[in-house]
Structure to design on (594 residues):
């Protein structure tokens, strides 16, 4: 009982450490927010008109496409956050301070939990910023509070999974450079799913991949929930993917952390 | 037996470790008395850091029994961790936090109350001369300051046993002396210190007991005095103004090795006052003038070089002179 209360206390300490890092090194947070912001503006104002026309109705082109693309952009935000997490974990592991933590009588998982909760906060802040901007440029969801809550809930679970995954990717990377490359597929997947165009418009093989990869049900269910469309089994699939990725990545990351050899950046 | 064991802070028996087919530690036995300073001395690659990593629960050994602070290293790792503090070779400070925040982080992880944490942090900042730098990020610290902060962080939890892995490597002489003083102060408070070093002087200066490690094998262990006694080779070195003086002295003493080129006579001696007095009396009786005299007692350098069989030092005494005289 005491050990679990210490685990929470240690995790809170590690989270404070993480938040302070973000405060001292804000360029990472800014970069994570800047990328989806640029993507949003690019897709709305550069591609928006013609993409919207393609979705149906030349008259409401751009306005239609903002509503379509915003959930995809939010998933890009999550992917960018994952890159930040992997880099910061990889950097941390090369520091002597983590070796010090390992020689202390603290909850082993707290080092990782601190990273995960810190990154979750970072990602959800970025998501909030992107939603705010989307609303400014014409994103007009029709859902009530319940729909919003459900959509955010599904996204948050997915963020949790992706964050644990990126912690594991950070742990297997030998350097910060390697860690910045490994989560790259997470940034590509929204494009190879229903993030930017309907999966149905793709050629057969690609369409099959787009329909069955994890980002698609998350994007689809957010879209459905925010616009009051019946979600069908998209929500179940999204929750299953989120929970599955979280569990698998958590187990993987903890195992990697326990086994990780002592490594140093050098003096 | 039990009471003896309880006075031992660290007991290791048959410690083995290898990476692939490279044997890093080949059956190490260690006993460190509580409250003492123990130095592990050896060249780079001897296995010193590996031993520290094992004893501080960072890595598990391939074999051997180890007890630290009375707890089994493998089965009771957390109890061991609660009793130890480690300052490694590379700085283990959080560079993005200030000095004070680093210390408070340690206080939080030791589950101290806020007030107690602040008290210890303030005290350590004072003790380690970091008050002025307390509010600046550790990334801006000099190497010496980072070492001091590192050590201060180790002390926040008031560990009973402290591991210091090459604590003075890369420090300037002044910082090195300051670190020595800190180590002595800790030992005076009853803390057990396990330190590794490449510097014979450091081990000689600080340690109650010294173990010599070479290629993963413990080649000698004892007090500095005991180790020095392993080697005969103390001598008195006498230099004369001319060959006549040298020859006369050689005849008077009736032994030693003489070198005509440098006009030096080496006489085996334990370096004690009594033997020096009788040596000088013999020369005085014959009115032989000595130009220069020095007493050489064997130091740990001699011990280490002899035991590891360093090819540069083929003999026990002062080989340079003996070799020249043999020409």
């Amino acid at each position: 009982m005491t050990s679990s209360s210490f685990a929470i206390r240690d995790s809170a300490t590690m989270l404070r450490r993480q938040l302070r890092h973000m405060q001292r090194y804000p360029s990472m947070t800014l970069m994570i927010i800047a990328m989806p912001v640029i993507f949003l503006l690019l897709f709305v104002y550069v591609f928006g008109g013609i993409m919207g026309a393609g979705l149906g109705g030349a008259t409401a082109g751009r306005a239609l496409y903002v509503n379509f693309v915003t959930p995809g952009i939010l998933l890009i935000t999550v992917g960018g956050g994952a890159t930040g997490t992997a880099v910061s974990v990889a950097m941390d592991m090369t520091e002597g301070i983590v070796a010090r933590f390992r020689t202390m009588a603290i909850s082993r998982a707290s080092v990782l939990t601190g990273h995960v909760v810190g990154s979750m906060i970072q990602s959800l802040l970025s998501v909030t910023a992107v939603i705010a901007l989307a609303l400014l440029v014409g994103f007009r969801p029709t859902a009530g509070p319940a729909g919003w809550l459900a959509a955010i809930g599904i996204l948050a679970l997915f963020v949790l999974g992706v964050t644990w995954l990126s912690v594991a990717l950070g742990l297997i990377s030998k350097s910060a450079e390697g860690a910045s490359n490994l989560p790259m597929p997470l940034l590509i997947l929204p494009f190879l799913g229903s993030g930017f165009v309907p999966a149905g418009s793709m050629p057969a093989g690609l369409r099959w991949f787009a329909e069955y990869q994890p980002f698609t049900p998350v994007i689809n269910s957010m879209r459905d929930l925010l616009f009051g469309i019946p979600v069908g089994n998209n929500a179940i699939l999204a929750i299953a993917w989120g929970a599955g990725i979280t569990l698998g990545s958590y187990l993987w990351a903890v195992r990697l952390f326990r086994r990780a050899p002592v490594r140093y950046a050098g003096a | 037996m039990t009471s003896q064991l309880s006075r031992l802070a660290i007991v290791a028996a048959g410690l083995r470790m290898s990476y692939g087919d490279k044997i890093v530690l080949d059956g190490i036995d260690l006993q460190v008395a509580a409250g003492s300073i123990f130095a592990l001395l050896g060249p780079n690659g001897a296995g010193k850091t590996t031993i520290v990593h094992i004893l501080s629960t960072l890595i598990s050994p391939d074999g051997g029994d180890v007890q630290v602070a009375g707890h089994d290293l493998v089965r009771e790792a957390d109890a061991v961790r609660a009793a130890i503090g480690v300052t490694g070779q590379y700085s283990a400070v959080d560079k993005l936090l200030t000095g004070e925040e680093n210390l408070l982080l340690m206080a939080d992880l030791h589950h101290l109350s806020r007030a107690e944490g602040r008290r210890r942090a303030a005290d350590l900042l004072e003790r380690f001369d970091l008050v002025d730098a307390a509010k600046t990020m550790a990334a801006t610290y000099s190497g010496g300051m980072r070492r001091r902060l590192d050590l201060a962080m180790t002390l926040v939890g008031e560990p009973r046993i402290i591991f210091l892995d090459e604590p003075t490597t890369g420090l300037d002489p002044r910082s090195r002396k300051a670190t020595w003083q800190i180590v002595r102060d800790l030992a005076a408070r009853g803390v057990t210190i396990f330190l590794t070093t490449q510097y014979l002087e450091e081990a000689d200066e600080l340690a109650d007991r010294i173990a010599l490690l070479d290629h993963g094998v413990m080649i000698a262990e004892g007090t500095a005095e005991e180790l020095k006694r392993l080697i005969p080779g103390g001598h008195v070195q006498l230099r004369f103004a001319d060959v006549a003086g040298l020859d006369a002295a050689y005849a008077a003493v009736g032994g030693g090795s003489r070198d005509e080129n440098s006009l030096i006579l080496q006489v085996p001696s334990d370096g004690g006052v009594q033997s020096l007095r009788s040596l000088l009396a013999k020369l005085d009786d014959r009115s032989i003038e000595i130009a220069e005299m020095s007493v050489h007692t064997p130091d740990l350098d001699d011990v280490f070089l002899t035991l590891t069989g360093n090819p540069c030092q083929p003999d026990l005494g002062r080989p340079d002179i003996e070799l020249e005289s043999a020409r």
Chain A has a mean pLDDT of 89. Chain A has twelve helices and no strands. The interface with chain B takes residues 6, 9-10, 13, 16-17, 20-21, 24-25, 95-97, 99-106, 261-262, 264-267 of chain A (CB under 8 Å).
